[in-house]
Amino acid sequence: QVQLVESGGGLVQPGGSLRLSCAASGFAFSNYSLTWYRRAPGAVREPVATISRTGFVTNYADSVKGRFTISRDNANSVVYLQMNSLKAEDTAVYFCGYSGYWGQGTQVTVSS
Known about the structure:
Blueprint lengths: L2 E5 L2 E3 L5 E8 L8 E6 L6 E6 L6 E3 L7 E6 L4 E6 L8 E7 L2 E2 L3 E5 L2
Parallel strand pairs: 2-11
Antiparallel strand pairs: 1-3, 3-8, 4-5, 4-9, 5-6, 7-8, 9-10, 9-11
């Protein structure tokens, strides 16, 4: 049974940082690219960052380039999203996913 469990969200002031984690189980983690997505209030879910199976290739949405960093630990089946210089428009529920599977998400709120 595939499980993706996100954590690390919270309330942070503009300019602050958060590190999200996604613990995976139930599938061959190192065989898949993983993606962080987000869904802002009233918006559709959008991809934020993707990492290849080995972690050597990453891609980012233009809106987060230079501020967010995706990484993974294949030994422990965890994918991370380091978010720096957070802005109000980064407020959203953040999900990790692959091949149509999703976690329950973690709320990130950026507000003063």
